[in-house]
Write a structure and sequence with these properties.
The chain is built from 13 helices and twelve strands. It is of the alpha+beta class. It folds into three domains: 107 residues, no CATH class; 181 residues, Transposase Inhibitor Protein From Tn5, Chain A, domain 1 (Alpha-Beta Complex), CATH 3.90.350; 46 residues, no CATH class. The strands form two sheets. Strands 1, 2, 3, 4, 5, 6, 7, 8, 9 and 10 form a ten-stranded mixed beta sheet that branches. Strands 11-12 form a two-stranded antiparallel sheet. Helix 7 links the parallel strand 5 and strand 6. The longest helix is centred in the last third of the chain and has 23 residues. It is globular and about 80 Å long. The two termini are 35 Å apart.
Length: 443
Amino acid sequence: MANISFIVKQKLESAIKILCRDFSSHVKRPGKDFSRNRKLPFEEVIRFLLPLQGQCMDQELFRHFSKKPLFFSTDYSGIPHSSAMIQARQKLSDSAMPALFHSFTETCKKGALFQGYQLLAIDGSQFSVPENLKEPLCWRKIPNISKGRNVIHLNAMYHLQSGIFEDVVFQPICECNEHKALAQMVDRRSSAFPAIFMADRGYESYNTFAHIEQKGDKYVVRGRESGTGICSGLNLPDTEEYDIEKELYICKKHSKKVKTNPRKYKRIRSDATFDFFTDDCEEYRLNLRIVKIKLSETTTEVLFTNLSKEEFSADDLKRLYHMRWGIETAFDQLKYALGAASVHSKNSELIIQELYGKLIMFNFCKTIVGGIEVKQQEYWKYEYKLNIKMAMCICREFWCSQTLAAPEVEKMLLNYLVPIRDNRTFPRDTVKKSAIAFNSRIA
C-alpha cells in the first residue's frame, strides 16, 4: 500500500508530460495553435479537463485556477473566463484526449489473472447531452413529444480484475453500431495474456465470435432464446438446461450443399457483415458451444462460448458471466460519482473531450483504490471495502491539490468504508435520463 496514490499520480503526470512534448500533433493547426505564451497553454487545458465536476464553467475555472496562486495574481484577476477556455479547447484535435487516455491506461496495474485469463466486459451506455439541432447525427426525437435530445453512445471495454476502462469507442446515436465498436476494440487490443470477453445478448453475432477467435481469445456472450437470434436456427433441444457443442460453417451462398446440410451450414444474409470472407474462402468454420443454464424456477439464460467443457463447466460459466455486472456499476460510478452526466458544451467534439477526461480520472481513482488493502477485523459483522464515491472525491481532490500528501490520502480513504453485502437485488431503473440543463447546475 506504500504510497500507491503517489505512484499513480506520478504516472498520470508523466503521461501528460509525454503528451505535451509533442503537442503540435494534437492540435488542429500545428505551428499556430498554442504557439504563443498564453494564460491557457496546451498543458493547462488538458489538466483542466480531468477533474471537471457538475458546476457551471466559470465556477469550474475559479475552483481550478484559484488553487494556483503562484500562477496568477493574488486578486484572482488572471483567472480566465469560460469563453477563453472554450476557444482554447477548440484548438485541440480529436487525438489529444484519446492519446492521453491510452498512454495512462497502459501504465495502470491490470490485477491478477483469472485461471490464466484477463476478464474483459463489453457494453455500451448512452449520455444524454443538451439538444443541438446543428448535429443531426447525435439528435434523436423523443417519442410522442415534439422535442428531441442529443445522445452520444459510449462503447467500453472494462477490465474486471482491476476495475478500469481499458478501451472505449464513442459514436453518435444515429451511427451507433455496437458490433462494429466491439470488433474495433478487440482488433486493436494488444496484451501478452489471453482474455475472456463477456457481453450481453445485444452482441451475439457470428462476426463478433470470429473476431475474438482470430485474436486467440475466448468469449462468453449471452444469446436470445427466441426471436431472430442465433438460437432460432440451430435446432436446439427443448429442455431446461443443456450444454452442447456444434461445428458450423458460415457462408452467404445458397448452394445445394448448404440446402442439404442446414444443421452444418449457416447461411447469413447477403448484406450481413462478416469480415473474414475472401475471394478464395467463402466459408468460415466456427466451433460453437451453447450452454443453457437455469437461474431460477422461471428464468433461464443461453450463453455462447468457445471455452471447453474441461476448462469451464456450465456452473463456472454462470459465475463467470455474473461477474460482467461490474461494467454496469462502473457506468453508474462514471456518470454520477464523477459527474460525467453533466457536460459543459453542446458541441459533441468538446463533450467527448470531457468524457475522455472523466474516463482518465475514473482509471486514476480506481487504480489507487485497487492498491489499498482494507484489513478486516474479527468483530465486524460483514467484510468491508472502500466507499467508492468518497474515494473518487478524495482522489480527485488529491490530483488537484499541491499540498495533500499521499499518506494522508490513503488514511482518508480508509476512513470511509462500506459493508460488502452480496446476493442483494434491486429493481433496475430503465427510465432514460434527460440531459442536465446549463441553467440547472448544482451549486
